């Protein structure tokens, strides 16, 4: 079943969430939970693109209450946005305590019709997707199950107008996925406009997105068209969404919901019509839980979530990618067996981008590509007793910064686990981070398989649980 077929039959957009292992996809399902009224606790599914609520038996959701009109209000699914409209009811409709004629719903919203109260809730039903038969999609290639699942989902989502949120580590191919979505969409002839929130100064992001008029701020000597306006008729890609300032997120949410925005320094509304794709290297659900990202914006952008698998989860794709970056088929097989083994077993913290750079280095220097390297290649200096970090100043700023952070993370976590007692819980307390985040860092950098019992990590020498009382087995002799 395609995404479009699914929307036609259920009125709901498919939201993909990666769980443990492959195939962790879920279908977004919205419901009204009756909290006060004739039947408290009853769950009313929002199972169609338009659902009418009232006391008439002809309504999709019938509420037998004298304060509810025959047709009191309706909920309309507008491509993943849920709009509530009062239908001229006698006692009116309230949303979060305020009377409304129509407004967009957000998770947890409280709706009052007469004396009956509902809560708008989102839930997820697991669905399964068959991996694509193809080994490429747009500029992406791979034959692993993990990446072919991504291809299958992209094939189904690309022709629709669904908003897509790409999640994944640095270098996993989120940019390539965006280009593929645009290429196979109905907007392929329109522009693909990219805004990298991580590469723009925080003070300039608002102007970059919304544009500004002359005199809007110091230095605004002329008017400027922003990315949102420039993307009309095509695709708007917001990269590094997790770097978007919290104070700017409500304005972006309003623009996406109402498809209208205002340039900085202006009062004139501007309409835009573009398909929205966003990407984040961080788990935005965790960012929402920690208060660093707005839940309502996350909900608006997560109509479809696609997790781009890291390279360590798809090692069978390394030979294919090697040959692609080398420019000739069969190049990986020409490597010595020991070298091929090193490539296949490397943890690839920089993912496909790191692989591409390693291939280029290997071809240029006629060597392994993973060992040594030219002076200034980013990494941990083995000749320095403290393992200091050396940036590669010849790289683009963003890539050099991300590479430096990757190396720092790995070295920090490795040393943290070696010096900390109390297993994962103790190490997380020492570092001042969430335990789940520490698990993710350990897995990301290939530093051993975390023990979910919180007793330690296998694969790092010297890391593990100690007997109660703090003594080691040697102390007991």
Give a quick set of tags describing it.
single chain, alpha+beta, seven-stranded antiparallel beta sheet, five-stranded mixed beta sheet
Shape: globular
Total DSSP E strands: 27
What is the oligomer described by this structure?
A: single chain
The helix content, as a percent range, equals 25-40%
- Low-pLDDT stretches are 1-25, 372-388, 449-459, 461-477
**Beta-strand residue fraction:** 15-25%
On the 0 to 100 scale, the average pLDDT is 81
Summed up, the helix count is 14
Biggest sheet layout: 7 strands, antiparallel
Radius of gyration: 26 Å
The secondary structure category is: alpha+beta
* Termini Cα gap: 65 Å
Structural commentary:
- It is a single chain.
- The chain has 14 helices and 27 strands.
- The N terminus and C terminus are likely disordered.
- α13 crosses α14.
- Helix content is 29%, strand content 22%.
- β8 and β9 form a beta hairpin.
- The chain has 477 residues and is an alpha+beta fold.
- The chain starts with a helix and ends in a 19-residue tail after the last strand.
- The strands form eight sheets. Strands 1, 2, 3, 8, 9, 11 and 12 form a seven-stranded antiparallel β-sheet that branches.
């Amino acid at each position: 079943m395609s995404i479009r077929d699914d929307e036609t039959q259920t009125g709901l957009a498919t939201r993909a969430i990666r769980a443990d292992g492959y195939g962790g996809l879920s279908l977004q399902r919205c419901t009204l939970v009756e909290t006060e009224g004739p039947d408290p606790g009853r769950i009313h599914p929002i199972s169609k693109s338009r659902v009418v609520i009232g006391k008439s038996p002809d309504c999709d959701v019938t509420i037998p209450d004298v304060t509810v009109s025959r047709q009191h209000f309706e909920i309309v699914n507008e491509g993943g946005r849920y709009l509530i409209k009062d239908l001229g009811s006698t006692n009116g409709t309230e949303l979060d305590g305020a009377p409304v004629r129509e407004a967009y719903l957000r998770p947890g919203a409280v709706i009052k019709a007469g004396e009956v109260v509902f809560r708008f809730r989102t839930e997820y039903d697991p669905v399964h997707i068959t991996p694509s038969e193809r080994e490429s999609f747009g500029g992406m290639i791979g034959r692993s199950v993990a990446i072919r699942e991504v291809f299958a989902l992209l094939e189904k989502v690309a022709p629709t107008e669904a908003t897509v949120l790409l999640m994944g580590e640095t270098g996993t191919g989120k940019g390539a996925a965006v280009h593929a979505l645009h290429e196979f969409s109905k907007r392929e002839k329109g522009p693909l406009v990219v805004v990298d929130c991580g590469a723009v100064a925080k003070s300039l992001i608002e102007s970059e997105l919304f544009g500004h008029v002359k005199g809007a701020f110091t230095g605004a000597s002329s008017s400027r068209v922003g990315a949102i306006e420039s993307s009309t008729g095509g695709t708007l890609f917001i990269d590094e969404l997790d770097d978007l300032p919290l104070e700017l997120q409500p304005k972006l949410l309003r623009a996406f919901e109402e498809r209208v925005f205002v340039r900085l320094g202006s009062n004139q509304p501007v309409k835009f019509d573009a398909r929205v794709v966003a990407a984040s290297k961080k788990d935005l659900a965790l960012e929402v839980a920690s208060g660093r990202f707005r839940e309502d914006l996350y909900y608006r952008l997560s109509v479809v979530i696609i997790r781009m698998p890291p390279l360590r989860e798809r090692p069978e794709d390394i030979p294919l990618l090697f040959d692609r970056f080398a420019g000739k088929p069969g190049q990986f097989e020409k490597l010595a067996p020991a070298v091929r083994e090193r490539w296949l077993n490397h943890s690839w913290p920089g993912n496909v981008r790191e692989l591409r750079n390693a291939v280029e280095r290997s071809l240029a220097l006629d060597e392994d590509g993973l060992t040594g390297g030219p002076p200034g290649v980013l990494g941990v200096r083995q000749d320095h007793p403290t393992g200091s970090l050396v940036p590669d100043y010849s790289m683009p700023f963003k890539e050099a910064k991300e590479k430096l952070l990757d190396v720092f993370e790995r070295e920090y976590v490795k040393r943290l686990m070696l010096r900390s007692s109390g297993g994962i819980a103790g190490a997380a307390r020492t570092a001042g981070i969430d335990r789940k985040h520490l698990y993710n860092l350990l897995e990301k950098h290939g530093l051993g398989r975390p023990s979910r019992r919180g007793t330690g990590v296998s694969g790092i020498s010297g890391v593990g649980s100690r007997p109660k009382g703090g003594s080691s087995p040697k102390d007991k002799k």
